[in-house]
């Protein structure tokens, strides 16, 4: 699991069984989680979700005068029923509403044996007491992506991946920000700091007392590009042009590297990737940083290496760097509790 922190909220990507334990060891507060993104329905990415929601509930103010915000959960078809049945069978009541928004996969996202039957995913039963109706989101063929939501600050989309069962990646893209005001120029124009500064910053033209019309483009520096974070679920390949278009210029691209390059055939057979494959995606997307994660247990961190151990996780980093040696992409190995700031491009 990983968390994207933005403006005080925490957005969680995948939720394996150990997620609650790790959250308690971290500086993050479970009650801050407002959105959850599940890449696919394998247990190591999902089994911790019901318990996590219950933990979030324990950290929710029970004041009946307050209306807690709805936790929005995005993931493949079948996720809604999984939560409804799990919370229902365990008699779990939550102190906040939640909604599950399901992504409709295409048939080419997995082998036939990895596709769920209609009986397994049917959610025609009653809603959980705290469940709000969610959306079913279909592929937009014009963009080869799924629009999850958009607000004044960001747009969130999903894209298709190939795995043993349907898998998705997620792209969180900030909107561009207006540049700084050229305060010296504004002073020359006789404009003092105040509400009119705010109008210009918001992209609105103003009229000075002299009658002159001032457009924002005259007094604003260059636009500040929004930051972009892309998180890939388990996969052995991307599908269509959507992933590469969406993730083009990503500040951070998070991609699995389950096995080393020498085990490529085994990795692909199990629907996974190698460092070389992850690096190829990062290169095609012109990403600034490639974060490798989801390592097989055979790869030991340097701190846990013992005499005679051959499978060092640092070798996975070296394999990705070899592919990217003539590029500016920085390769990073994910570690528990690693904090990676994503700075604005100024």
UniProtKB/TrEMBL annotation:
Pfam families: Anti-Pycsar_Apyc1. GO terms for cellular component: nucleus. This is ElaC homolog 1. Keywords: Endonuclease, Hydrolase, Metal-binding, Nuclease, tRNA processing, Zinc. GO terms for molecular function: 3'-tRNA processing endoribonuclease activity; metal ion binding. It comes from the Eukaryota. InterPro entries: RibonucZ/Hydroxyglut_hydro, RNase_Z/BN. The lineage of its organism: Eukaryota, Metazoa, Chordata, Craniata, Vertebrata. Its cofactor is Zn(2+). Homodimer.
